[in-house]
């Protein structure tokens, strides 16, 4: 019976992709933030929050949210990154938040196929293009993703060897058909930070396995206790500070 229960729990995790209900949105955006939009190669209008930096040689960070959430889930962390000199772009994935239009079609992630979830790498490419148009060099961009966003970040990274690094919060071997095991084996030069908390057993075991499978690139594994799933872990000041310090270190 215990084995059957465990199997059902794991099946539910794989099916849902660790859906997180979005927290109540703040009435206003944080200070020094712009609402922006851009288009993917397949015509999806992506909405994003842009946190510009006044640094002479700005470094960009693209933030990718969890399934069922939106760009506002990053507000606090994005503001901290901005305070530390980074230019930040937190996007709404297609079918999430305000990114719901593709030509004349309305998108809803609840109705997506696995193919449509894998297409989310396109918004990462378009987000990076947006940052380069803002004056950030192509080789001065990081990506941080949570849960499904971590899987998308990893799959995008194998197409872009110029990334400064990727921070993966609660990655999974399979979220909504977005697979990571083969992808992580193709990472050859991009520094990777894996972060997971022990009570989140699927992401915890996935992060350890992905870390072990990363052969050709600089890597770091950050294992936590009782900190939750994905971007929830950033509620702990020490966790967010450690990730920001990692970004700074890789930027040197």
Q: What is the H-and-E element order?
A: HEEEHEEEHHEHEEEHEHEH
Strand content: 15-25%
- What number of domains? 1
The helix count comes to 8
Q: Which fold name corresponds to the CATH topology?
A: Rossmann fold
The count of strands amounts to 12
Label the structural class. alpha/beta
Regions with little confidence, pLDDT below 50 for 5+ residues: 1-16, 21-27
Q: What is the CATH C-level name?
A: Alpha Beta
- Give Rg in angstroms: 17 Å
CATH superfamily: Alpha/Beta hydrolase fold, catalytic domain
> What average pLDDT do the residues reach?
91
N-to-C CA distance: 53 Å
Classify the helix fraction into a percent range.
25-40%
Tell me about the biggest sheet? 10 strands, mixed
Provide the CATH architecture: 3-Layer(aba) Sandwich
Attribute tags:
single chain; 252 residues; alpha/beta; Rossmann fold; ten-stranded mixed sheet; two-stranded antiparallel ribbon; 23% strand
Helix-strand blueprint:
Blueprint: H1 2-16, E1 34-39, E2 44-51, E3 59-64, H2 75-83, E4 86-91, E5 101-102, E6 105-106, H3 114-118, H4 121-133, E7 141-146, H5 148-157, E8 165-169, E9 174-175, E10 178-179, H6 181-184, E11 192-197, H7 201-213, E12 219-224, H8 237-251
